[in-house]
Design brief:
mainly alpha; about 80 residues
């Protein structure tokens, strides 16, 4: 590893703003995993559902979760670009 790259990494470790960004990214990743699991669970319930009303409600919840995941993934991409 080159000296300048090493210095940059060390500065990132000790910089409080960078540390906060890393923590926020870590928390966002964990939340996205939970959302993904919940979405898969709802999709499975939707496959087994027999009621049209219940199916519609499940589909609404799934679409909300998909939108939230998309926002979270976009946030992660933006923060990754800023770190590099």
């Amino acid at each position: 590893m080159k000296f300048t790259k090493l210095i940059k990494k060390l500065n990132n470790l000790f910089d409080p703003q960078q540390r906060d960004k890393r923590i926020r990214r870590k928390d966002t990743k964990a939340a996205l995993k939970k959302i993904r699991d919940k979405q898969h669970e709802l999709e499975q319930r939707l496959k087994e559902c027999s009621s049209d009303l219940e199916a519609k409600e499940l589909q609404e919840k799934i679409s909300i979760l998909m939108a939230q995941r998309a926002k979270g993934l976009e946030f992660l991409k933006e923060t990754k670009k800023k770190e590099d």
